[in-house]
TrEMBL record:
PANTHER family in the record: THYMIDYLATE KINASE
Domain Thymidylate kinase-like intervals: 10-192
Keyword Protein transport: no
Record's protein name: Thymidylate kinase
Keyword Chaperone among UniProt keywords: no
Source organism of the structure: Hypsizygus marmoreus (White beech mushroom)
PROSITE patterns: THYMIDYLATE_KINASE
Pathway terms, separated by semicolons: Pyrimidine metabolism; dTTP biosynthesis
Gene: tmp1
Length: 220
């Protein structure tokens, strides 16, 4: 059976330290001779990503459904690249993924099931690390409030939906780990590494797909 590299996703509330912890993890993986590459969503370098960036910076307004579909399209732009990297033995560390798309859009009142549907069949992570922090603690960190969704009540709703997603992913056989991100940076990094070490030697077999049991049934 073909062995591939693992797909690791780091999720979390805004200002939970995702980008910092992702950078530290990549440094540690490379220092231990584990080939790894960063993928970050939204990828603001593409044409779709530039539209998303304008929206997040509050420079433009879009319908909630339209921006949700743009976020999903941005992930699909890189889906084949992620699989190619994994199959070539390069681990992918992803800063935000489909789970963020659902959590933020559903927090604005859109149907949870509708929010999930555009991302059905995306590559599924082998490990998702959710950096959990209270909105009050996040507010104390530098830069809070600079982007559209960085409001305490919004972040509280987002956190609740993230936890729902985590329960569902775990029940479906995925690995979702909640990590207390309110601690010192080094303590969070050590816990992340403990979990990543467990999958760092590679995953066997083809990538799983997200939510394939939610695909519509063809009754024709």
């Amino acid at each position: 059976m073909t062995r591939r590299a693992p797909f690791i996703v780091i999720e979390g509330l805004d200002r939970s330290g995702k980008s910092t912890q992702t950078a530290l993890l990549l440094q540690r993986m490379k220092a231990t001779n584990i080939p790894a590459q960063l993928v970050k969503f939204p990828d603001r370098t593409t044409a779709i990503g530039q539209m998303i960036n304008s929206y997040l910076q509050s420079d433009s307004d879009l319908d909630d459904r339209a921006i949700h579909l743009l976020f999903s399209a941005n992930r699909w732009e890189l889906a084949s690249t992620i699989e190619q990297l994994l199959n070539s033995g390069i681990s992918v560390v992803c800063d935000r993924y489909a789970f963020s798309g659902i959590a933020f859009s559903a927090s604005k009142g859109l149907s949870y099931e509708w929010c999930r549907s555009p991302d059905i069949s995306l590559p599924a992570p082998d490990l998702t690390l959710f950096l959990d922090i209270s909105p009050e603690a996040a507010k104390e960190r530098g830069g809070y409030g600079e982007e559209r969704y960085e409001k305490e009540e919004m972040q509280r709703k987002v956190g609740e939906i993230f936890r729902r997603i985590g329960r569902e992913i775990s029940a479906d056989g995925g690995k979702w780990v909640n990590i207390d991100a309110g601690r010192e940076r080094e303590a969070v990094a050590e816990e992340i590494w403990k979990w990543v070490e467990g999958v760092a030697n590679g995953a066997v077999g083809p990538s799983r797909r997200l939510w394939t049991d939610k695909l519509p049934v063809d009754d024709s």
